[in-house]
């Protein structure tokens, strides 16, 4: 992973290899444009502030990989999740509740078939548990994990492709991961189905914000600009992106925002002092024939402050990601990442 300032590309010899705790199955959900690889960068920015977040908020939760990564690696005390999509919020509500075992059993016993995919696609769920199961099943059996109503099943309706509908649905591993995450529910402050603006209002009312507003950290990962209407059930119109750009300066606490590297995103944020370009090298499949490959931009008040303090000069300078913490979970794989920021 490589972070570049606009108009500058760091060469390989300016970078240092660093270790980070991660795992490919950090989230049970496959989410378009999942940002698991941003967790090391955010962890390092947190460490540079010397302020441990008491509350880490992800109001566009999606697969929640960043929140879970930082919680399991013990960089934050608690997390809060929200999402405008009721299927996604229902999934996380159940995972971090006493009903997690019931969901794990449903996953373990699932009949992974095209018929079940069609049934769930058409079913209006009645309970949170049913919604959580529907969310996970469709996510793991649809192209690129998309819950969009237009998204088709892996392998297509004919199931003639090289990959069949159940290729991403390892029932025992998914069930086990749900149970692992459920043990963290005492460190999940809330999970809600609401807009990011409502979550901002809710966090302003919390005791942690009233007592220590500088101990709240926000990770904002709004829907893509490109192809969002084909990837998500809840996506932004242009005016929504513009509204968010105006709102971030009033976010209560520290924050980092990430976007697909799109001309409109550059227009909105390219002049911000906390702007940088990240090469995550991920791709999101829209359907059998089309794949969206994208870079990512990040914007953060912490990057802005580091630059203002002269700790991030123009040109290549390494942000060193902390080495594996001794108290990191033993089952988290250590991998190497190259990270630099200009």
Kindly list the characteristics that best describe this protein.
single chain, about 350 residues, alpha/beta, Rossmann fold, eight-stranded mixed sheet, two-stranded antiparallel sheet, disordered N terminus, disordered C terminus
Explain this structure:
This protein is of the alpha/beta class and 342 residues long. It has one domain (2-339): Vaccinia Virus protein VP39 (Rossmann fold), CATH 3.40.50. The protein is 34% helix and 19% strand. The chain has helices at residues 39-49, 65-72, 86-95, 100-108, 114-122, 128-141, 171-182, 196-204, 207-211, 228-231, 238-247, 263-269, 301-308, and strands spanning 2-4, 16-22, 55-58, 78-83, 188-193, 216-220, 254-260, 275-285, 291-300, 333-339. An eight-stranded mixed β-sheet has the order 1-8-9-7-6-3-4-5, with helices on both faces. Strands 2-10 form a two-stranded antiparallel sheet. Helix 2 (65-72) links the parallel strand 3 (55-58) and strand 4 (78-83). Helix 3 packs across helix 6, helix 4 packs across helix 6 and helix 4 packs antiparallel against helix 7 (171-182).
Topology (elements, then pairings):
Blueprint: E1 2-4, E2 16-22, H1 39-49, E3 55-58, H2 65-72, E4 78-83, H3 86-95, H4 100-108, H5 114-122, H6 128-141, H7 171-182, E5 188-193, H8 196-204, H9 207-211, E6 216-220, H10 228-231, H11 238-247, E7 254-260, H12 263-269, E8 275-285, E9 291-300, H13 301-308, E10 333-339
Parallel strand pairs: 3-4, 3-6, 4-5, 6-7
Antiparallel strand pairs: 1-8, 2-10, 7-9, 8-9
């Amino acid at each position: 992973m490589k972070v570049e300032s606009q108009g500058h590309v760091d060469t390989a010899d300016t970078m240092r290899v660093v270790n980070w705790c991660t795992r490919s199955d950090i989230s049970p959900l496959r989410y378009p444009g999942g940002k698991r690889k941003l967790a090391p960068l955010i962890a390092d920015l947190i460490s540079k502030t010397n302020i441990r977040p008491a509350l880490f908020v992800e109001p566009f939760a999606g697969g929640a990989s960043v929140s879970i990564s930082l919680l399991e690696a013990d960089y934050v005390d608690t997390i809060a999740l929200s999402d405008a999509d009721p299927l996604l919020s229902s999934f996380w509500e159940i995972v971090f509740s006493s009903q997690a075992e019931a969901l794990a059993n449903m996953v373990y016993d699932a009949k992974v078939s095209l018929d079940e995919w069609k049934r769930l696609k058409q079913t209006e769920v009645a309970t949170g548990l049913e919604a959580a199961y529907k969310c996970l099943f469709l996510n793991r059996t649809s192209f690129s994990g998309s819950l969009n109503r237009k998204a088709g099943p892996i392998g297509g309706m004919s199931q003639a492709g090289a990959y069949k509908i159940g290729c991403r649905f390892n029932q025992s591993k998914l069930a086990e991961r749900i149970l692992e995450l459920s043990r963290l529910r005492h460190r999940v402050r809330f999970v809600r189905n609401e807009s990011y603006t409502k979550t901002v209002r809710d966090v302003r009312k919390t005791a942690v914000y009233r007592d220590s507003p500088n101990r709240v950290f926000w990770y904002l990962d709004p829907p893509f600009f490109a192809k969002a209407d084909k990837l998500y059930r809840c996506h932004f119109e242009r005016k929504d992106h513009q509204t968010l750009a105006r709102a971030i300066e009033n976010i209560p606490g520290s924050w980092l925002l990430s976007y697909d590297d799109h001309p409109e995103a550059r227009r909105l944020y390219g002049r911000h002092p906390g702007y940088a370009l990240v090469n995550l090298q991920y791709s999101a499949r829209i359907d059998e024939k089309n794949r969206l490959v994208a870079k990512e931009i990040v914007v953060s008040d912490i990057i802005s402050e580091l630059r203002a303090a002269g700790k991030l000069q123009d040109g290549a300078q390494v942000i060193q990601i902390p080495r594996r913490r001794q108290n990191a979970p033993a089952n988290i794989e250590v991998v190497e990442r190259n990270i630099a920021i200009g």
